[in-house]
Write a structure and sequence with these properties.
Layout lengths: L1 H26 L4 H51 L5 E7 L5 E13 L5 E7 L11 H4 L14 E4 L19 E5 L5 E9 L3 E6 L5 E5 L3 E3 L3 H7 L35 H8 L22 E2 L6 H9 L4 E2 H26 L2 H14 L17 H31 L4 H43 L1
Antiparallel strand pairs: 1-2, 2-3, 3-4, 5-6, 5-9, 6-7, 7-8, 10-11
Helix pairs in contact: 1-2, 9-10
Length: 456
Amino acid sequence: MAEIGEVEIKLETYKTQLSQVTTALSSCPGDDDLIALQTDLTELISITESELLNLKKNQLLVNFCDSESKEEEHVTEEDSLDSFVGMKCSISHTSSWGTVQQQNCIILSVDVNDNSETTVKVLFLTPSSREMLPCKHYLNSTCNYENCKYSHGFDVKMSDLSDYVEPNFDNFVRGKRCLCKTDEELWVPATVTSVQTEKIFVKLDGSGTEIECIYENVFPLQSEDSESDSDEELNISDLSAVEFTPLHRAPPNISFGGWEQHTNSFGSKMLLKMGYTPGSGLGPRGEGIVEPIEADIIPPGVSLDSVRELREKRLIRTVNKLNSILTKKAAQKTNSNNIKLQKSRDIFVMMDNIFKSQNSRPKQQPPKNKKPINKVSEKTVRVKSVSIENDILHCKRRLADLKKSLVRNKHDPTHCSRVQSQISAESKKLDGLMSKQKTVENELKFRTEKKKLKVF
């Protein structure tokens, strides 16, 4: 390639010189030196072109031979890569919520990318989530979704493949941990409750229900002893091969989700479905917090500095502390009521209390008999007349407002019925006041006529 480039550069140089000589001859047509130089350059260009043509032919021949050898190597390499298809292996898979698991899988295809790196597409044999579950339509080449919610295979490097973890049913007895295949074809953690000849009964960790499975739908999890003997180099958390013990454990009498007794317990249900064990810490290995974050009860209108000082002096109460205090007070009140009830059960004490309560009651004085209107003074009668007139005026205003409200809200039957009852009550009250006013007016008229008779 370097020789071809050099010859092409020389050829371009000769052509440039020839064009310059031709331009000079156009201005001096009879110059013998320029004519001789033009002839030499023409011959040199023809020789150079033939040389360049021979070099290109040789290069094409070499490339053709190399391509044939590479095709033969590629065919042999493809045959060797196709032998990996269908093999079982295991890979370290990171789930969508961040946990790393060692999953058994099967190789679906092998490919070599542009960087000469060999990658394989695998399907999981024990999928624990929907994104890991193989798409049936994709396997039949009938899936038309670009972003399918099921797996179309995961691409991993050939160097990241590990040995397939064989299921070990030795010492597979009650209490052993395993993965169980559900009706949704997902593998969930469970605990063995009973082992029979052809069937296994397991209890699911998430829902706590006991189901019946065959051996093909159960994958035993390796215990700590077998893991240390068989695989000392495994440093990644392995859901399908390792059972981890949480680092932080709460007391066994903790009530999981007790704070959700007034809700639908959505949070605790989600935690249990994701494999959380009540009483352990959060996180894939249980290294997180165990107790939930408590809410502090802070006095209103207090600055942050004051809150910090109160917190240092431990004067700020949490919701749990306040609930415990209220519970203690309620228990004390209940105890005191029980003591009072026990004392009242004594017949003599009960009778004594009854007599004491009757004697301690103040005697009700009989109501004072109101004097009839003809027995009171004239001043009292006139004062009563003015008071009745004011009550009548107020009652008439009240009736007018109620009638306006009835017209304004005539489309509301409930409101109309309530206003009608108020109008009837006010009408009765007005009738009573009018009769009282008539009685008072008659009394005043009688007394006025009596005064006139005394004059004569």
